[in-house]
Design brief:
Elements: H1 5-8, E1 32-33, H2 45-56, H3 70-83, E2 93-96, H4 99-110, E3 116-120, H5 125-133, E4 137-141, H6 151-155, E5 162-168, H7 180-193, E6 196-200, E7 226-231, H8 233-236, E8 244-247, H9 250-263, H10 269-281, H11 283-304, E9 312-317, E10 320-324, H12 332-343, E11 345-346, E12 348-349, E13 360-364, H13 375-385
Parallel strand pairs: 1-11, 3-4, 3-5, 5-6, 6-7
Antiparallel strand pairs: 2-8, 7-8, 9-10, 10-13, 12-13
Helix pairs in contact: 2-10, 3-10, 4-5, 4-9
Length: about 400
């Protein structure tokens, strides 16, 4: 069978890339799975009960509206209005089969093969992959400080083929949170240059404090240049149900719906009902889980504060820590493999989130029990002690 170069040129998913090694994890080092950004807890009881009820309902497996169930769109609107100031309407919302689909449908609606989209490095690997699959050129913005892009840096990369710039806040893989002021600067930049600011807000619930992650929806013409994509996976613990959302102009939603109709026809009904139950019936549970993950972040930061084994924490937030390993002469994927086989630590190499190798690793501290994070200190130190001559 002849396969297309546009798919052959894309990497395989880094998630599960080291699964073949898990049978060889040392017996005295039970696996510390810090790889995939998935909640380490079950959904709320109210969510589980709703899914069970929908499974038994005669309409539970029928097609739904392309743009999503009306009561979920309304519930998400209420949730957004409780978080963000500004002008939002249910007509600005389209439910999708996960945030990955939301991103893909938006990009396919605003850019064509040969166009360009700016990604900040490190990027989320599926964003980069989708651009490649669509024949859209990714232009990589590498922030001078490694984390926070500036408008000036973006300005230098724009051409007449640029259609959008993508920002992720809180970041994946870095956990870094962009300030509302910085996001406002990028929104003004997008309007001035007539491009789209596409913000992935998968982890918005994990922005600390009571303030809004941004105030972009207060801009009078935000619908002309701002699109936000969302997920229900992380704070409601339903990643396998595949539910996300696009928040953007009604004109964009119309075009995205055409694409959705060809790909999935409609978002999964079970997942939508689960998300609705989570938003409307499990508020206290949701807040408690957000607090639990914040506590895991604090513990992780404490463990990494002494740079055990020379592993240095650059940033942390939401689900992730962005960590530099000290072995400049060892390829990062090889470090990841050795961590699994010697210490039972499974992480994702930073090479999955950029084209080069800068010795970075993504640790997903949200995956495991908080007390097990303490094991990292000893294991990382032990790992480094066997190769101290290779540390920088």
């Amino acid at each position: 069978m002849k396969l297309q170069k546009r798919t052959l040129d894309q990497p395989n998913s880094p998630i599960g890339a080291h699964a073949h090694l898990l049978d060889d994890v040392p017996a005295d080092r039970p696996l510390l799975d810090l790889s995939q950004g998935a909640p380490g807890f079950a959904p709320a009881p109210e969510v589980q009960e709703r899914m069970a009820a929908i499974a038994r309902h005669p309409d539970g497996s029928r097609y739904g509206p392309i743009r999503g169930l009306a009561h979920l769109r309304e519930a998400l609107l209420d949730d957004l209005r409780s978080t963000y100031p500004g002008d939002l309407s249910v007509d600005d919302i389209c439910i999708t089969a996960g945030c990955n689909q939301a991103f893909a449908m938006v990009v396919s609606a605003i850019a064509a093969p040969g166009d360009e989209v700016v990604l900040t490095v490190p990027y989320y690997f599926n964003h980069d992959m989708w651009l490649g699959l669509e024949g859209i050129s990714a232009v990589y913005l590498e922030p001078a400080d490694g984390l926070n892009p500036t408008v000036e840096e973006a300005e230098a990369l724009l051409t007449d083929r640029t259609r959008a710039i993508v920002l992720i806040s809180p970041g994946n893989p870095t956990g870094n949170i962009m300030t509302p002021d910085r996001l406002a600067e990028f929104a003004a930049f997008a309007a001035r240059r007539d491009i789209v600011l596409l913000i992935d807000e998968t982890y918005r619930s994990f922005v600390p404090g009571d303030g809004a992650p941004h105030e972009l929806f207060t801009l009078s013409a935000w619908r002309d240049h701002v699109v936000s994509v969302h997920s229900f996976s992380k704070d409601l613990a339903i990643p396998g149900q595949r539910v996300g959302a696009i928040v953007g102009s009604p004109d964009l939603i119309v075009e995205a719906a055409k694409l959705i109709d060809c790909v999935t026809i409609c978002p999964p009904r079970m997942g939508q009902e689960a998300a609705h139950a989570g938003l409307t019936e499990a508020g206290e549970w949701r807040r408690s889980k957000i607090a639990d993950i914040a506590a895991k972040q604090a513990r992780f930061e404490s463990v990494m504060s002494t740079a055990p084994g020379g592993f240095t924490l650059h940033s942390a937030g939401a689900y992730y820590g962005w960590v530099e390993h000290p072995f400049a002469d060892i390829a990062t994927p090889d470090v990841v493999e050795a961590l699994v086989l010697e210490q039972g630590i499974l992480v994702i190499p930073g090479t999955a989130f950029m084209r080069g190798d800068t010795n970075m690793l993504r640790f997903s501290f949200a995956n495991i029990e908080i007390d097990r994070l303490d094991e990292l200190r000893e294991r990382l130190s032990d790992f480094a002690s066997t190769r101290s001559d290779l540390q920088t």
